Amino acid sequence: MPKTYIIGHLKPDTDAVVAAMALEYLFLERDCFGYDQPQAVITDPLSPETNYLFDKFKVEAPPLITVTEIGADDQVVLVDHNEKSQRLTGLDEARIVEIVDHHKANLNLSTPVFLNFKPWGSTATIVYFFMEENGVTPDKKLAALMLAAIISDTVGFKSATTTDKDRKFGAKLAKLAEINDIDAFAFEIFKAKSDISTLNDEEIVQNDYKIYEFDQKTFISQLETIQQETLLAKKDQLLAAMANVKSQLEVELLFVAVTDVLQINTKLLLAGEAEVITAERAFGGSAVDYILDIGPKMSRKKEIAPAIEKVLKNNN
Ligand SMILES: [Mn+2]
């Protein structure tokens, strides 16, 4: 019997994993979606933050699969991503039947699929909306994880991507999860997110990155942390690691955003002179020793990547 795999992006964050689990829950509760054996899966290991949350709430992680497990009769629902560069490598695009996402669409599929895009703060917010529409209530643990996903993606409802839907559904999920102190829960999540103790410098640079096909191929990674100063203190090692990653991944520009989620501030680490010029044009100000303070901008999706893209477009 065919299966329906529900898959988040490569190097999944909490939202990608939890939104997949929440969709599985919804699809199992309601036959009307018509999916055979819906199953949330991951295709890369969990982040320390997601591991922390699964330990805390004693929830089992979705199984880790490889592309060879997806058969010719199986279907795939993508969550929290859409473009090819962020999908499971080798995934046959003909398997995709639905996409649930809150990122900019960059698609050219050859067949019609269900597209559920909403410009909200997290994919978990969108899945909660579908749950409400269908009269489905997540259980207590899933509610806690969905709240965590919203908090993680919106940096505790402080990112520019936050919408009223995130706040409203976040409050409902907190009630279902019996979490009274949302700020304390957010701080726990930020602490877990900041834990990069098991990573070497190149892994730190690549911990949460996206490659954008702008006029120049551009790598932007983001470290959301409560220890911005500690991270910047090892700037020289990070710059060396950035140079290595830049040549390994064959990107033309490489930026690492070090975002202090408590102070609400981002400092951009710049891999070289081209990045310095681009960043100064995009955000104003002057870089000092390959660091540019871009102030309270925290959203890669809404603030950082678009500003860089605009400068690169105007260059040509
Ligand atoms: Mn997301």
Question: Could you outline the blueprint of secondary structure elements for this entry?
Answer:
Elements lengths: L3 E4 L6 H16 L8 E4 L6 H9 L18 E5 L16 E6 L12 E4 L5 H11 L6 H15 L9 H14 L4 H13 L6 H5 L3 E5 L3 E9 L2 H6 L1 H14 L4 E8 L4 E6 L2 H11 L7 E3 L6 H16 L1
This protein binds manganese (II) ion (MN).
The site of manganese (II) ion has 6 residues, from loops.
Characterise the protein shown here.
The protein is α/β, with parallel strands linked by helices and 316 residues long. It has helices at 14-29, 48-56, 123-133, 140-154, 164-177, 182-194, 201-205, 228-233, 235-248, 273-283, 300-315; strands spanning 4-7, 38-41, 75-79, 96-101, 114-117, 209-213, 217-225, 253-260, 265-270, 291-293. It folds into two domains: 4-192, inorganic pyrophosphatase (n-terminal core); 201-315, Diaminopimelate Epimerase, Chain A, domain 1 (Roll), CATH 3.10.310.20. It contains eleven helices and ten strands. The termini are far apart. The structure holds manganese (II) ion. Manganese (II) ion (MN) is lined by residues 15, 80, 102, 122-123, 153.
Straight-line N-to-C gap: 52 Å
Number of strands: 10
Low-confidence stretches: none
* Rg on CA atoms, Å: 19 Å
Classify the helix fraction into a percent range.
40-55%
Note the main attributes of this structure.
alpha/beta; inorganic pyrophosphatase (n-terminal core); Diaminopimelate Epimerase, Chain A, domain 1; 2 domains; 5-stranded parallel sheet; 5-stranded mixed sheet; binds manganese (II) ion
Offer a quick outline of the entry.
The chain is of the alpha/beta class and 316 residues long. It is 41% helix and 17% strand.
